[in-house]
Specification:
mainly alpha; 72% helix
C-alpha cells in the first residue's frame, strides 16, 4: 500500500475540511464596522475563512496552471470580485449568497486539484463565478459611512495579497517536489 500523501490528496483533504465546517460566510459579520473605508475593505477578506480560502486557492490555481494563467486567473478573480461588488452596491442587493460562496470554494478547490494547462477559458470561468459570489458578500459588508471606492481598494489589495500567498505556496511546493524534498 502506498502511504505517500500527494499534493492532490492534501488539496482534497482541505476541500473536505471546508465542506465539513461550512456554515454561513463569515467575512461580512460587521466586525470592522468602525474602520474607515480602505481599512474596512482591507480587513473584510480576513474576517472569514470563506474569503481567505477562495483567494488563496485562486492563487494556487494560477500557479498550478502556469503560463498565461499566472496573470489571467488572479486578474479575472479580482475583476469579477470588484465588478460584482460595485454592481451589487449600486443596485442595493441586500443579500450575500451563502450557498453560492460555499460552492464556489468547492469549485475552486476542484479546479486546483485537477488543474490542467488547457483550456484557460474553463479556469477563468470558474474564478469569474467565484469572484462574483464573493463580490456580493463584499457589497453586503460595506460599513455604514464607508466610501465604496476606498472599501473596494482595500479588499482588492487584501485579496491580491492572499492570491499571492497561494501562488507562492504552490510554487514552493512544486519546487520542493521537483527537488525531491
Amino acid at each position: 500500500m502506498n502511504e505517500r500523501i500527494t499534493g492532490r490528496g492534501i488539496v482534497a483533504a482541505a476541500c473536505l475540511s471546508l465542506i465539513a465546517t461550512a456554515g454561513p460566510a463569515l467575512a461580512h459579520d460587521g466586525a470592522h464596522v468602525h474602520a474607515p473605508g480602505v481599512l474596512a475593505g482591507f480587513l473584510h477578506p480576513f474576517g472569514g475563512l470563506d474569503h481567505v480560502a477562495a483567494a488563496i486557492v485562486a492563487g494556487v490555481l494560477a500557479a498550478r496552471l502556469g503560463g498565461r494563467a499566472r496573470v489571467a486567473v488572479p486578474a479575472v478573480f479580482l475583476g469579477s470580485l470588484v465588478l460584482s461588488t460595485m454592481l451589487a452596491g449600486t443596485l442595493g442587493v441586500p443579500f450575500a449568497p451563502e450557498t453560492g460562496i460555499q460552492l464556489s470554494i468547492v469549485a475552486l478547490l476542484a479546479a486546483a486539484v485537477f488543474a490542467r494547462p488547457r483550456p484557460l477559458a474553463a479556469a477563468t470561468a470558474v474564478v469569474a463565478g467565484a469572484g462574483a459570489f464573493h463580490g456580493l458578500a463584499h457589497a453586503a459588508g460595506v460599513p455604514q459611512g464607508a466610501g465604496m471606492a476606498g472599501y473596494v481598494a482595500g479588499f482588492t489589495l487584501a485579496t491580491g495579497l492572499l492570491q499571492l500567498a497561494g501562488f507562492g505556496a504552490a510554487t514552493l511546493a512544486r519546487r520542493w517536489k521537483t527537488a525531491g524534498a
